[in-house]
Description:
The structure holds 4 protein chains of 4 kinds.
Chain A lengths: L4 H23 L8 H19 L1 H7 L2 H24 L17 H32 L7
Helix pairs in contact in A: 1-2, 2-3, 2-5, 4-5
Chain C lengths: L3 H22 L3 H23 L18 H4 L13 H32 L4 H9 L2
Helix pairs in contact in C: 1-2, 2-4
Chain D lengths: L1 H25 L3 H21 L3 H26 L11 H17 L18 H12 L5 H9 L1 H22 L7 E4 L2 E4 L6 H8 L5 H7 L11
Antiparallel strand pairs in D: 1-2
Helix pairs in contact in D: 1-2, 2-3, 5-6, 6-7
Amino acid sequence: MDDRVILRIGTKILSPFILIFALYVQFHGDYGPGGGFQAGVIFAAAFVLYALVFGLGNAIKVMPPKVAYICGAMGVVIYLGVGYLSMFRGGEFLNYSYLFDPEHDPTHGQHYGIIGIELGVLVTVFGVMVALFYAFAGRRRIDT
Amino acid sequence: MDMALDALSWISIVAGLFFMLVGTLGVLRLPDIYTRLHAAGMTDTMGAGFLILGMVLQTVQGILHGESTWWFVLFRLVLIYVFLLFTSPIASHALARAGLAGGVAPWTAPGDGDE
Amino acid sequence: MISFTLFNYWAVIVLMMVGFYTLISRDNLVKKLIGLNIFQTSVIMMYVSIGKITGGTAPILMESGDHGGEVAVDAGHAAVEVLYSNPIPHVLMLTAIVVGVATLALGLSLVVRINEAYGTIEEDEIARKDNAR
Amino acid sequence: MTETMVQLVDVVLLVLLAITGIAVIRTRNLFVAVMLAGIYSLLSAGLFVVMDAVDVAFTEAAVGAGISTVLMLGTLALVGYKESAPTHKPILPLFVVLVTGGILVYGTAEIPPFGGADNPAHKHVAAHYIHDSEEEIGHIPNVVTSVLGSYRGYDTMGETAVIFTAMVGVLLLLSRGPLPKRIFHAGQWHTVKAGTTREDMVAKFGGDAGPDETVKDGPARTEGGADG
């Protein structure tokens, strides 16, 4: 092990709080500033911090690039899935009012629809940001 | 009571601004990265600390006036300070390490130390 | 204030032109991308300042006494109308920022590839090497 | 009183932004330029808070000042920190910029005053969103979220797809992709034979030891970022 004790311990203490803060931003987005984009970036920032302190090799063990790529694609699928779900329930594409029964309160469906698509945005942004960081940091430099 | 809290809060906010100013001057005037980090670290702990203390006093005043939801604001302010206590020294430490790894020799006064 | 009515727009245009100048006058590709970034941020500022309403507050609806904001302050006259800034530019610019970082990443990766092929990221040197081929 | 103070903060932030922008133009150390770009993003986030756009400010602080800076530093670790001296006279770009800026300023004469509550921009659907979203979308106090998620869900969907596409593009360009057909090294072009790996080229021409080193000390390898 190297001698960077303060950095390693500090990262280990802070990382879970960064992740929790990202989730807070995600789910508090209905009531205050925040939402999927910001939460995704903050979620990714925790992994970037980990990679900076522990090295890219260890970060790849924690979060393989493939998982990041799949996350990036999965978010779009979740988003489209919510849209198609409301379509199959009898409404228009992305009309969340139809997510529940037509007699049901339409605002209920709207609320869950927004939570669903925000989740999709979170997953995509998180995956894309981590993948971008890996792409740039994992590149080997050829001297020219 | 109100007056006292308000005055205390403003005093600590002004003190925070003073420390911020001194820290900024230090960053601008000091000779090398390590001494500048020293000044910047003071900005974070003392300056931001006093500013948050001032805001906490304002929040306490609100709570005394029966604003029950301001407890959350107080809680968040305390959390912010706790995280500042963690992140600021770690960031300074990381920067100083990076400077050392990058081969920046610490500045010494002319004619002092190196012969 | 001295005719503050349009000052904000003018200042934002100045920032925009600073970014534009960086973009067209520098040869270094990374510097060009930084200039593009500044330009883009200034455009976002332009939109956001169109959405601002003087005396307004952030478009987060508040119920009386719940968030301790404007309504609570004006508790004396009960049903006071809270003025909210226009949320539409905020929504549009929110997406623009994230798209901006996506395009920036794409541009930076192109810069990395150009550097690998040419060994430089200065535009005139790249042109010179192309001609010397 | 408060409005005057808000305008004061606004002016101070705009002046600081202009100073930062001009410093970006003047510096020749790319590391410093990237750091100044991060400062620019953070200052503009402050400006967005002043202009009541808290969501935009949050995004700008997280994305513009955070991830953009990290990506640019990652690039600088691969391409180097020095910018060569400008070779052209700045007269033509300056002329273009001044003319464009002049035209834009001339165009602002038709813009309604800053901050007016009766501006046309606030008359169309914005009032509807603010007044009726509580009823139509349910209890979501943040209007930006309900507009982003529900009223303008298509926008957000396309935008999610755009960043996904950007990831695909960057991965195609950067992740273990094929080497360029020719590489410029030591004053001449070298043809890269088919089947040569990146490791072979690093062994032949020199380069970084591996991914780990690139990350660990990459941005730290400037001269402390100190230039004046």
